[in-house]
Prior knowledge:
Chain A is an alpha+beta fold. Chain A has helices at residues 18-26, 74-90, 111-127, 179-196, 208-215, 221-229, 244-255, 270-279, 285-291, 307-310, and strands at residues 36-38, 45-47, 52-62, 95-105, 131-139, 145-155, 170-174, 236-240, 258-262, 297-302, 316-323, 329-332, 338-340.
Amino acid sequence: MEHLEYQEGRTELESLGEFALIDRLTEGFGRRHRSTVKGVGDDCAVLGTGKRKTVVTTDMLVEGVHFDMTYTPLRHLGYKAVAINLSDICAMNATPKQILVSVAVSNRFSVEALEELYAGIRLCCERYEVDLVGGDTSTSRVGMVISITAIGEVESDRIAYRSGARLHDLLCVSGDLGSAYSGLLVLEREKVTFQANPNFQPDLESYDYVLERYLKPEPRVDIVKLLAEKEIVPTSMIDVSDGLASEVLHLCRQSKCGCEVYEERLPIDYQTTRVCSEMSQNMLPVSNALNGGEDYELLFTISQSDYEKIKDSTEVHIIGHITEEGSPAVMVTPQNTTIELRAQGWKPVE
Amino acid sequence: MEHLEYQEGRTELESLGEFALIDRLTEGFGRRHRSTVKGVGDDCAVLGTGKRKTVVTTDMLVEGVHFDMTYTPLRHLGYKAVAINLSDICAMNATPKQILVSVAVSNRFSVEALEELYAGIRLCCERYEVDLVGGDTSTSRVGMVISITAIGEVESDRIAYRSGARLHDLLCVSGDLGSAYSGLLVLEREKVTFQANPNFQPDLESYDYVLERYLKPEPRVDIVKLLAEKEIVPTSMIDVSDGLASEVLHLCRQSKCGCEVYEERLPIDYQTTRVCSEMSQNMLPVSNALNGGEDYELLFTISQSDYEKIKDSTEVHIIGHITEEGSPAVMVTPQNTTIELRAQGWKPVE
Lengths: 350, 350
């Protein structure tokens, strides 16, 4: 009878960041197969021996950690669980094709509740032309856990890794930043109000955009298509799930480069700015953009020679450029102050 | 603020079996891509447009439901979590190549505990020549959840679906049946003893085989190799995870046939028989074989013309044959009594 969790000399999970933990756990795993083109360390694994590669990613969502059932409609949850996996497929410049879905639930949930969840899963599959090809349903003692694996396809010469950014490349981001986190802030505020007075009916209409961004993100399959149409292969790419700062640092670390991001270039929606000013005088929209997370936009670099092809796109914003190896990743303010970017850590709860 | 779980007119999860639930949840999902050869309904999805197909499966293990931390060493748990997914790959007559691993844990677990888990994952990867290519680590409020996706390869003309069994085919099973469940019975008994007297040191040596079968099952990659060497393509195949009876019924339902299983042909290990007699006078080893589950052996059918090729194998047992459509799946006892096989249901806990 072993109780490893109570051993002496233990290292707490909090003492390592998420990425240091993954590095530590996966070191020593070799690569045996020629068909394993890329393993751990990017948005997807890349598999296959032919010209056309298969990309695979998986993500687990845990109730109470990744979602709060008090303000997450199950249909939205199903949609979002698929969308965030498809976003990882897009981040390789690939097209999503199939998903597998595993759900564990306690009997707090009815069959109808699960049908709502699957209605959202189906909606996202239909919208992005993805086939549901497997998975399982099992029991959980506490709450709901959803694990989705997504599979996509991409030609070898169009794959975008995190590691390919080169000196002077332009740093681009799709859509806008910080709005999903602003939506979460509104929901958390309403939850507190609701708990104090369950008869209170919140007026959420004027927050429709930020709420939708949080509850029902869209994977940027359209950007992958746009890049193909414009005959651009990004030199590097990652999706923005943990906030811009964290993702910029990933690109720079894996591409062995620095970068400059211009604060005034960051795409921030009006509602994001309004929510910030409502919440606190000290809450800056740019902080939400840098650290908020859950945007599921695409951050990528392109060669300067591709500038003309993309400069008129309303959905892609050029926010900075790559600097040489050894230089830091920084944000330049409108006052020309330079601030080094830092990622927010990952903390286990409980 | 929606609370779908408390809606009126709810259908309880218990009122449907696991498979009826999956059918209900996944109906209405179309198939859009030519590369989706087989979706939901077999041990794996089958993908790809070329001669060589990719097979994919995923499984989620939840603490307190699928494993009990009081008697499951984390290293064994990691090994088993991989093994049961590789078993699904084998059940398509395919060879496992890659896995992705997602783990959610509360901070009850230390980094060292997770390293133990990953040591087991690594051991299984090394033994079966599988590459770890992705996954994530996240937080859970309660306990541990492990979700693994496994990917394998198989030539189109060697794939074994559940649906291919034909009249007069021979029904075969690898290894032995009921031993894993016997191991679980021993562990549950020792847990009760341990809880009553924590200083009690159980003598588990004489149960080594059944304990190993439960704690550290082996996917039958060797049987897939054997079948290739003998130039046998099974007409149908499934892995035995929920007990022989349940799996036989799956094969018969999907192949639209009946079958006769001979009780005296069921491979049952001596320790399995001994555990049964210790537990209760009424516990029959054959019941463990039919309903115990977690054997992770391969159940398959072969053409009678392949009989000579396999009859001398010590690892494959011919336990019956396929009967015509419309006839039931039955077990024939040594006394020549015929018993209709029934699957045990799936029940959500809590």
